[in-house]
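Journal club prep — side note

Before the paper discussion, L.F. wants everyone to see what a predicted structure for a comparable chain looks like in token form. Sequence:
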Amino acid sequence: MAEGLEFIDLSVPIEESDSEPFKPQVQHMDHAAGAAVMSQIFGVPPEALPGGLGWANDNITLITHAGTHLDAPWHYAPTAGGARAMTIDEVPLSWCYSDGVVLDMREKADGDRINVDDLTGELDRIAYSIKPLDIVLIMTGVDKYWGSADYINRGAGMTRASTLWLIERGVKVMGIDAWGLTAPSRASRPR
């Protein structure tokens, strides 16, 4: 690793869970079922495989919001800025590694909006200026609810103006510890 370069893994595992509205589904395939698959692939009978067993596999069905992920512009709409929106395979990899800054918004309550003044206030507090291609991570503190059924109903969220403010400064990737970048809807917020 290059001197001064630090990688921090912020990912969470994809796992079967009852806390997500569209929970990942995992179908486990044992070695006997794997032998049938290998038989089809290689054209040999299962009994020709060692012990008559093949690979164990898992089939996973999930939506793009399952676990840690990167949304492409296509996720939101078929067009962006008057042109066809980029799909995930078209997002430049160079956008995904750059300097990062964490903006602490843990004082915000569930459902609060994070506005431009909140961003500039936190940037002033930590004495940091946004530069093009910075990766901005918003910390709301809702990660403590990860794995609970209430997780998707928690957290503050970015406003349109605060999101555009970051984009205007050259930010291409931003993240949040909540289920989405915007605040939960009033209907789903905890009472």
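L.F.'s comment for the group: Helices lie at 31-42, 73-76, 116-125, 160-168. Keep this in mind when we get to the figures.
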